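Pasting two entries for a bug report.
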Amino acid sequence: MKSANNIERIVKMTFRTDAIDEFLEHFHSIKEKIRNFPGCNGLKLIRSVDKDNILFTYSKWNTPEDLENYRNSELFKETWSYVKQLFEARAEAWSTEIVAEL
């Protein structure tokens, strides 16, 4: 059964090794703006334990519309155009919902 609420967005980003510090600096400068965007209920930055240049953002959204509003915002457009220049590989993203939680 599909739920219309509580979207959890996972974005995998593989950075050039020379760009990791630049990304982290940029992320720390905008993380509060993303976290405080209407409809966002949480934001995490996660790093792979196997490869230092692979990071994930994990964000929680009230509804699919809230996530879409963010993705269409100037904040997202500016952030993404800056960050994608630092990638070694194309980003991957998934919009997910919790099916079971123990």
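Entry 2 (this is the one that rendered wrong in the viewer):
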Amino acid sequence: MADTYLPADVRKRIVDVMRERKMTQRELALRIDVNESTISRFLSGKTEKLSEESVIRIARVFNVSTDFILGTTVIPDKKNYDISELGLSVEAAKNLYTGKVNNDVVNRLLENPRFATVTYMIAQYLDDTLAGGYAAQNQMYATLSSMLLGINKTSAAVQAARTANAMKVPTYQADQTTIQNTFMTVVKEIKKEAGSDLAAAKAIGKEATERMFTELTKGQDSPIPTITPEAVADAVTGSVSGMDYVNEEALQNFNQSLVDLLKTTLQQPEPQGQSDDTTE
């Protein structure tokens, strides 16, 4: 079906979609459970009567929105689907609705063309479609190996039997490897499309650090400025102090912990062998 259509009223829209789907008035009437004469009279303009239920059923037949059938939009795609139409379980829909899963990630996966392939691979993995083939193949190699060894015990026969055994594939290995590789390709493609904010985050972090350093060393002409742990901690916590939802008491506790950490990290260890007592 086309992505967009020319503006049209409900009659023209139904006729266009029927023509595209190669569906007759009789077929449409049967699909929506009305008399063929009802459809014929409406499409020919002999009557203005077309029930709301009929419009809904027509939209379902063509898998488009009712707004599209009514001519209020030129885009046929539906915006809302019933759970039963999507094939989702109640629990799956609940997880989407409550945000237990990341909806943006789910959307990106479903929009990726390869992801549909992954779902079919997983379905075959779950119902043993490919595994059954590999199991039969492995049995064939095992039988061949036994036959070779049963004929004679020559080194050539033994080697041939070993080769046959080596050709066996673990029943589920091929399934799992293919699924993993294809799924990771999907993830990489999504990551590429989404882009990366890593470079921007690094730039922002560098800028913030440089600005903090400038503030901490303001007024110091020394080539090696003095920066105390307290000053660093105050600069870090001060950048978020006063913001909404910031717990000031927790922030002060973090400030003190940061001071203690910096003091411990910057503390110079005493040289080994040195004692507080001096020897005369």
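Dev reply: Rendering is fixed now. As a check, the viewer should reflect this: The mean pLDDT is 77.
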